[in-house]
Amino acid sequence: MSKLTSLIRQTEIIKLAKRKAFDWETLDKHLARKGEELGHELCISKRTFNRDLSEIASLFGIDISFDFKTALYSIVPGDSSEENTHLLEAFDMLQVFGQQRKVPSYLLFEQRKARGTEHLTPILAAIQQQQLIAIHYEKYWMGQFQDRTLQPLALKEFKRRWYLLALDEGKVFKVFGLDRIRNLDILQERFQTLQNMDFERYFQDVFGIINTPGNPVEDVILTFTEFKGRYIKSLPLHPSQEILVDDGKLLTIGLRVKIEYELVAEILSHGDEVRVDAPERLKEMVKKKVENVIKGILLT
Prior knowledge:
Blueprint lengths: L2 H17 L4 H15 L7 H15 L3 E4 L4 E4 L9 H16 L19 H10 L1 E9 L4 E15 L2 E7 L5 E5 L3 E10 L8 H5 L13 E9 H9 L7 E5 L3 E9 L2 H9 L4 E5 L1 H16 L5
Antiparallel strand pairs: 1-2, 3-4, 3-7, 4-5, 5-6, 8-10, 8-11, 9-10
Helix pairs in contact: 1-2, 1-3
């Protein structure tokens, strides 16, 4: 059995588990049907299935376990990484391309591509091997380059851009945009982190990647038009998003976040389909930005 067939089967197991808890008979029928659709033999023994569950946990970070009370398999709540949904989406697209031999004309991708994605693989390798990296880095706001030696810790995606989370020479935590890295070398020297950083906790109160120390977490209230509100409900702005009013005409949500540049930029991107209700200082920040746009003022 090829590795490709195994990956296809494992992604189908995950998709079934995401829809509902299932028993062995349901899984067997599902794999038989999908095997006919995709042109692969996907039906397996229970021994192979157990091996698949182990590989799914390792590769996708998704744990599927058997509940003896219900006699059903299901995803373990809280222990599985929803971020790995991107891996499933990417693999689905690879299957399409593999069958078509080329990108079909009816699949239209966005033409803008963020620079720096070629650094993803070497940075991942450096993180896993705990090796220092040297980068030639451009600071957009200063218009100059710097050479930095870093301890790479993790990678984070935000709005189709990738960011490196690292410690610099002074062991200070910083974030670097991969699109601003002009050259990258993996050094032979290894490092050992003194403690594991809780990145989910670090970013839980921010929208984006900017997290200014000392900046307070505040209650932000935004109201959207009924039309825009549908998008906000289908793709929440932040994990803390709470619906306060949804009367069929307006949608009002509450967020618990720090007020940073990226949040202001997101609000402005919705134009006249959003209103800032609180806090007052955020209302003033957005108002000032809108006035600058109307007056044609560019901040330099």
